[in-house]
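Convert to structure. Protein one:
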Amino acid sequence: MSSFRYLGLMLVAVSSLAAAQSLRIDNVNVITMDAPALLENQSVTIRDGKIVQLSDTADAGEAFDGQRIDGQDGYLLPGLAEMHAHIPRLSAGNEAVDEVLRLYLANGIVLARGMLGEPGHLQLRSQLASGERIGPELVTSGPSLNGQSVGSPEQAGKMVRDQQAAGYDFIKLHPGLTRRQYQQAVKQSERVNIPMAGHVSAEVGLDLTLASKQATIDHLDGYARGLIPEDNELRGQDPGFFGAAIAAGIDFSRIDQLARQTAKQGVWNVPTETLMLHTMGDTPLQLMLDWPEMRYMDTATVDRWAEITRSLRTGYSEQQRRRLLAMRQQLLVSLQNHGAGLLLGSDAPQILNVPGFSIHRELQAMVSAGLTPQQALAMGTRNVGQFFGRDDWGMVKPGAPANLLLVVDNPLEDISHTADILGVMRQGRWHDRSELDGWLADIAAAKS
């Protein structure tokens, strides 16, 4: 599959967002996500929405004709991407949409890949690109192809062509497609040059998905089924929630083989591990409901999340849940070790994942699974640029777009430090801690 065509918007957006502004962030330690990994005591100069220079603060001098920002000896790294995001429909109202967008940006997310789009999101994408609306860069699918929206192979192909013509960035796949429907969607997506991403339908299976070079598999969907041996009685059975129902049949010795196959086919994964940990894990539900970020969600949504979590935890045994989570952790490390692409995404706002805040919990989940902090950060920075075919995105270096996150302490030493934010820059526009706190206070007040 080719890289996403939306990327042309990113450069067009720079001039309008930055308004030809010059800024310099002094007294920062830069995590470049390029070599070398850390540069101490730096000044970073930004002009017209792009990074133009990194230099030692001691040598930068006082003379500068733009805005100067004191980095407070913090750590500057590329802004993050949420590669499995959900954006409210515009029919939900401007306030609901803007709340989610600001929750993302307030947490350092400068790009969101919307995984269930609608026609209004095409307009929203343009508003975000021009700076008319505050929030991350938006990459959006159209309405999903699934077992209910697609009735035939011909209809699957037509939906792909129609969505490409409408201007969506990619095709979202939900479960329920037949092999013939999926194959026709693949054929048409290749013909009109639009990627496909999302779930693995049961009839399609992991082997065909990988062979078709689907751009991303999300939630590690299909891998549990792919790890059931051919002679196991659970082979071909309903997997339940991402494989929980068939966890007893998983053959852990097959994980490396599937990881190598994934890497060979060039298929990327967006694990959304927090979604699984919240629902299948052992963290007490009340503890999660008491997380500070829950104040930014309405009571009805939080109550619904709690009910879904209770249902899933009672629907599967402790042994099933723990075995599924153990498989996923081993698979994540194997995918990393074998060179298969991993991208950061948390499926917010879904089941106890508050937009923006959940991406920091996702980073912590990646490190808990066995990735290093550097590898976890790469999933939301440098890897995203590689996925989109951009060698300047997700790094702090001259020529790169000025998408930046400034935090108090070094996340390479403790990944949880990404959540302690001093400021965020999206393509040259700086939002300091005071402004971010103002957004959050307004959102909390609207929910109280």
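Protein two, convert as well:
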Amino acid sequence: MLSRLVKFFSDFLFISALSVLLFSCSGDIPRVSRQDGPPAEQVNVDVIVDAVPQVTTRSKYGNPSSYVVFGERYHVMPSSKGYKERGIASWYGSKFHGRRTSSGEPYDMHAMTAAHKTLPLPTYVKVTNLKNNRQVILKVNDRGPFHEGRIIDLSHTAAIKLGVKGTGTGWVEVEAIDTNSVISPSKMTTRTVSKISEVSGSQSPVPVTLQNKADLYLQIGAFINVKNAYNLRDRLSSAIVAGKVHVSERLINEQKIYRVRIGPVTSTEQAEKLSKTLADKGFQKSQIIIEKRSY
């Protein structure tokens, strides 16, 4: 009897040690929320704006046809068009800050991003807290959450803005945004503008096919809540460019979006200079936008 007990405990200890070894030596362990938490420093989330929907290319890394986590296979959607779902949202924070996401981008817990198991990466979504009706626009650039019943993992900032940080989870509606109806931000540099000028004989940063039909803006944020948009406009006006900052309204997916912009500006050089000045003052998310005129 004693020998059997000794053998039992010997086998138990061996198996336990082997399990720890296999776990610690495994490759990409799926992201879970053990020992996670908020940032150590205080962050003013009021100055962090919603993600700006734009036309993007699919991530090379984050869109396999399917993948397996914890023995379950997930199939990545070929398109986000028409996606709308209700379920539980959770959030993830400091434990994963700076780590590479499934799309290849580093995770920033202060940015307006999220993780989803099957939406194409990236996808822009409108998330509504069904308890308090707060809404945000997020960029989905990661995979998760791998917990039963949960449909989306929010960044720490998004969780605060939606009012789910304190409870840890919340009942939400997630709806994909059709970026085909959105004017894509320009990623042009001064070098690109020079090439356009060589071809068109013009110093305008707007592509030759849109000259006299479009304007160039520096966009600092986009909001569902109009009050947040005007608060940002007022802070910008007092800080840097009084009289040039304005709020424009656009309807996307039957949802009014309020965009805070500077402009129109005359060149990408002017836009880049303004963007640097804004970044020095804590406004990090400015983007160059080309928009067709309505007249």
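The domain at 45-179 is CATH 2.40.40.10 (Barwin-like endoglucanases). The first helix runs from residue 2 to 25.
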